[in-house]
Amino acid sequence: MRIRYVVLPVLLASLVTAESWSAASQAPATNPRTLVGTWRLASLERSEAGQPAAAVANPIGILIQDAKGNVIELVTLKGRPGSIDIVEQFTTFQASSGTWSVAPGQSTITYQIKGDLDPRRSGQQIVRSYERQGEQLVLTQAASAVAPASKSTWERVSELEAFPDYQRDVVGFWQWVSAGLEDLNGKMVQPASRDYSVIVYTPTGLMAVLYLPPAGRKPFSGPRPTLEEARTAMQGVPTYFGPYIVQPKSSTVIHYQMAIPNPNQTGNSLLRNFTIKGQELILTFPPQTFNGQRVRNTLHLKRLSGLADMWPDYRQ
Amino acid sequence: MKGYDLRSIALALAGLLIAGAAHGQSFSSGTIAGVVKDASGAVLPGVTVEAASPALIEKVRTVVTDDSGVFRIVDLRPGVYSVTFTLEGFSTLRREGIELTTGFTATVNADMSVGALAETVTVSGAAPLVDVQNVNQQRVFSRTVTEQLPSSSTLNQYATLIPGAVLTSGASAQDVGGSRGEFQTGFTIHGARTNDFQQTRDGMFWGTLVAAGNKMSSLNQATVDEVTVQTSGATAEAESGGVIVNVVPRDGGNTFRGSFAGNFANQALQTNNLDDELKGRGVTVVAEIRKRYDVGGGLGGPVMRDRLWFFASSRYWVTSTYVPGNYFNATQGTLFYTPDLSRPLYDENSYFDNRIRLTWQAAERHKIAATYGVERNCNCLNNVSTGMRDAAASGSAKYWPNRNGQLSWNSPVTNRLLFEGGVAFVSLVQQRLRVGSTPGDPAVLDQERNYRYGNHRFGYGLSDSFGEQRTFQMNEKFAVSYVTGSHAFKAGLQFLYAPRETFFYQDGGPHADRSYTFLGRTPVSVTYYGGPLATSLRQDTLGLFAQDQWNVNRLTLNLGLRFDYLNGKVREQHMPAGTFVPARDFAPVEDVPKWTDINPRIGASYDLFGTGRTAVKGFIGRYVNFEAFGITTANNPANLLVLSATRTWTDNGDYVPQESELGPLSDSAFGQVRQATTRYADDVVRGFGVRPYNWQGSIQVQHELGNGIALNVGYFRTWYGNFTVTDNLAIGPADFNEYCITAPTHQDLPSDVSGKRICGLYDLNPAKFGQVNNLVAQASDYGDYNEVFNGVDVSVNVRFGSGGVVQGGIATGSQSVDRCFIVDSPQEEYQCDVAPPWSGGTQFKLFTVYPLPWDLQVSATYQDSPPVPTNAGFVATNAMIAQSLGRNLGACGTRPTCTATATIELVPLGTHFLEPRIRQLDIRFTRNFAYRSMRIQPQFDLYNAFNANPVTGIITRFGAAWQNATSVLNPRTIKFGVNITY
Asked: Which pLDDT tens digit goes with each residue over B98-150?
């Protein structure tokens, strides 16, 4: 399929550089507020080695950066056919999370990837130059050994004009802490573990999630995963973005999968009950049957940032 | 209570209301509401919903769905709307072609799917026909529909279109092609009182306290954008519960647009519908058209684009009909009447309305509209149509000057908070103008023919003297609404200040303040008048209301509470000296009446299948009866003036009433103030919950049968309370003696009456006759007084093609009265429980606008109304009664020759029907022609197309003339007209 040849270099260009781990793992306090917010991918150009830059057709993506330096970025293509296999699903969907920072006096952003759908990119650092043009953010990254040069243009998504109070506490970056299947009395039946994983609720009504498998994923045997490697990499990895709504009466949040690796799942909605206790968010799935027992998958997440970090101008 | 104090209290109370609250449904605007869900059925909070329409001066109104996914956009002007739903991450959804009318909540639900915001899904479909949230019953008539229908273009035309509507003035007011003009407009439904008929403009009271909704003025159709006729379930914003006709005025826009309409008919376009049977029943000639035409138009456009607009209009229409058998007086100015056969009499009803409306978008969220109108109306020679007066004795009822206006302000401060306020006034002067006489001409009553002629001088009042009645009303309202989606709260207050002053006098000259009674050409008596008469009354009302429309899933609760305060007073009155009386002064009388009431209104509507196409509704509400100076007038001390007395006149042949020819005054108190013989109990005039009221209840099922077809089935019940009775404390049941009569034999009387003996009749003992000490008291102090209407309406509403409409249905009902207790006379139990048959209250009405190929169009209205009842008032002579009674009738006292009579209704009133039903079909044929930006529509109208001749009035006094017709439906009439829009 042609799309994989389009997206894969983009992915590489976007997220992988020759840079190594750096001090950017800690969120700087000097990040420009103008870069904080939720950004919708408007256009994407890339250039293969020795080739002029070309526009990528139908890109779709979300970039969320908070004031504390947390970031999540998901990029894929709109209108992918439902018939693509899991390798193509993998190669046409990029998801990473971590931190971002801008060094004083610099016009570059350094992204430290803490978790990535592609195990090869976890722990990598990338640097992009940035430019704010009105409501647009243009990120440019140079070609590297593993990725072509790219230029992505993002449009700022406005926060909800009528942002409801009941949604305020939900907004933020939340890091996965623990999870498992609990019986209806709250007793853990089947614990689970994950590598660095986050779910992000923004004041724009959009959300994004990247839950990774347990640490220790193996790198692929070649530049392109095999069917089995792709299946392994995708197994148990919920990652998608889209709108979400909060229904306060039932303490329910509904996620709408506007973009997800498997295009057949696009448009689906997922219902979660939520509880917020201090800095903890508990997401509970609808009951299911496990080994003949009624259980609910329950996720415990800790707050990395809140509304003030996501929307510094809120009520100002 | 002083007016100032009243306002202070009102403001304080309103403040409390407002503080506790938030826009309920208003019948002066429309609402778009609904729930937004995702593809799985989960509700979507936070969705931005925009309603856009050319009808909105602000172009777009925006709200956001609440946490239940519910939205509500209130206070929308009627028009065609598009509604757009946007939420980040979802495809934008747009619903187009939503035709919104006033008082209607259009349910527009949305199912949104995940997608990019830029992806827009547009859905065009039929506008909702079923209101699944409001519990009121209403009919909405847009100008574009009514101007296509063959109807009278008066306020009464809506009665011809609504099943169940009954003309206040009865069948004789049935209009054929504009034959009635605006005369005696008003109608009732579901057993409502005639006084409860209300006319509002832009939601504000537009009547006078002369005759409630019939404000003695006209309805200029050129100014109308839409008319809503509410017939049941009025919200807490309404004081009384009868028919409420709300006119939504036309606003100008950024484009210059106008219209012109005209039509005419004359005698040559009228046929004759009298047949031998009718001629045998006393009707010999039809009422011929003298002239009938109607011209009017309007123009609207920008004064300042996007800021200030105008709409100006003018209409003049006349309907004049010859009065058969009545003529001008060839010997006017003398004491005699000589019919001038070359000058037949006619009535002429003319209306001239000039009106301008300015609409100002003062700021983004502030809109101000001002309307000012001047009318010049005349029911000229209106009393000649009775056939019992000539032109000089009738005069003309002129309504001039007649000015009215309105200033309103609307401010959607936020998407949730709306303020509205306004002030309206109606200033009406009713005058009686001289026609065909000169000042000083004598006025004569010919007893032989019961015919008055010569001058307009037979008492005091609009029909019998000169002078005028000045009525003014100014009402103000302020309301605040808070809309959250699931809740639409509205609270507000309404004031009404209404003074009324009259001044009636007789003209001077040698016959000043007197009239003559002749028997043919023989003088009988001279009547003297103790005027002038001047009265001054005032009525103030205050209404405070709070209401909430609350959506709970598919259920919508409509909860309302209203506080009503009414205070009437007779102001200080001064009457100048007349020919026979000195000047007189009367001190004011306060608090007649002073009433307070709390009126709850509760309703629920359930969207049966959640599709917005089927609603089950229930409603119950309490309303005070509309009051227009009734008790105030009854308590006016000026009523006690003895304003006339008679002296017999035995003329010597010179027709000059010399002192020696005149007998004594019939009333020695002439010109003086008589001692009151009637007083009102305190708990009738003052107090909480003592004002006459009614409860209204309804259960309705509305269902959209298919695309553009809706069915409405409703049961309606109205029942009244706080009746009063007049108890003559000087007499009691023991002072009456029973008697029986034998009813006359007649094939048209019911078999259980014809020739049968009727007992249970009572006559007052002669010793007590004439003794009067009346107390008007609450009927509940004496027994149970019940008046209940039960009825069922079934109606359909069909829209098809491009502008095709079929609406109509059947309505049936019965209003029973049960008053079986004795206050004074045991005869009060005679026919005390009357329940008219439902057939007597069954109507079928239908109208259609049917577009045809080649821009042709046919439209029609059909009415099938109950016949006039054949009542039978039998005048029993003393001879018929005396044997059974054992004495002469009490009215005769001890006189040896007794000529007194007693009138006995042989059948309960309104229960006996022998006449054919009144069926009328009116048809209009038109074709549209386009010329540049103009649409020209010539019209050919056929009224009473079948030339039907049902009797619309009969003589109900049993005797030789019983059942003779007094009026017949006007014959088939052709009208030509044109309607131009540009």
From this structure: 888 887 888 888 888 887 666 677 666 667 788 888 888 888 888 888 889 99
**Residue that the structure tokens 């010997």 belong to:** B331
Indicate the pLDDT class of residue B11, thresholds 50, 70 and 90: very low
Give the Cα-Cα-Cα angle B833, B836, B841 (nearest 5 degrees). 150
- Range with the poorest average pLDDT among A45-49, A251-255, B383-387: A45-49
Q: Is B196 helix (H, G, I), strand (E, B) or coil?
A: helix
Residue B48's SS3 state is strand
| Residue at B600: amino acid letter | P
Q: What is the CA radius of gyration of chain A?
A: 19
Chain A residues whose beta carbon lies within 8 Å of the beta carbon of residue B115: 258, 267
Q: Exposed e or buried b for every residue in B110-144, given b needs 16+ CB within 10 A? A: bbbebbeeeeebeeeeebbbbbbbbbbbbbbbbbe
Beta-bridge partner residues of B605: B556, B617
HSE (side-chain half, CA atoms, 13 Å) at B440: 2
Return the structure tokens found at B967.
């009026």
CA distance B730 to B677: 10
Q: Is B537 helix (H, G, I), strand (E, B) or coil?
A: strand
| Cβ-Cβ contacts under 8 Å, B417 against chain A | none
Distance CA B690, CA B818 (A): 20
pLDDT of residue B770: 87
Mean pLDDT of A25-40: 73
- Contact of B408 with B369, CB cutoff 8 Å: yes
pTM for this predicted structure: 0.81
- B51: part of which helix (H) or strand (E)? strand B48-52
Residues within 8 A of B (CB atoms), A 50-69 only: 60
Helix and strand element counts for chain B (H, E):
8, 58
Rounded to two decimals, the ipTM of the complex is 0.75
3-state DSSP assignment of residue B772: coil
Q: Is the pLDDT of residue A314 over 90?
A: no
Question: Can you tell me whether residue B679 is helix, strand or coil?
Answer: strand
Q: How far is CA B767 from the centre of its chain?
A: 45
For B152: left if phi > 0, alpha if psi spans -120 to 50, otherwise beta; the answer is alpha
Neighbours of B58 (CB within 10 A): 16
Q: How far is the C-alpha of B49 from the C-alpha of B38, rounded, in Å?
A: 15
Asked whether B549 and B602 are in contact (CB, 8 A), the reply is no
User: Nearest-CA residue of chain A relative to B89?
Assistant: A243
For residue B941, list its beta bridge partners: B924, B975
Q: What's phi and psi for A3, nearest 5 deg?
A: -65, -35
- Please give the structure tokens belonging to residue B930: 């386009």
Q: Rounded to 5 degrees, what angle do the CA atoms A11, A24, A175 make?
A: 75
**B571-592 burial by CB neighbour count: b if 16+ within 10 A, else e?**
bebebeebebbeebebeebeeb
Round to the nearest angstrom and report the end-to-end CA distance of chain B: 54
How far is Cα B197 from Cα B755, in angstroms, rounded to an integer?
A: 42
Return the closest-CA partner of residue B378 out of B456, B424, B454, B430. B430
Mention every residue, 6+ apart, whose C-beta is less than 8 A from residue B61: B50, B51, B52, B73, B76, B412, B415
- Chain B residue with CA closest to A266: the answer is B114
The C-alpha atoms of residue B973 and residue A73 are separated, in whole angstroms, by: 80
Interface of B with A (CB under 8 A): 38-40, 42-46, 48, 64, 67-68, 87-90, 113-116, 415
Per cent of chain B over pLDDT 70 is: 95
| DSSP class per residue in B820-889 | ---SS-GGGGTT-EE---GGGG-EEEEEEEEE-GGGEEEEEEEEEEPPPP---EEEEEHHHHHHHHTS--
**Tokens standing for B829?**
């139990």
Chain B residue at shortest CA distance from A164: B46
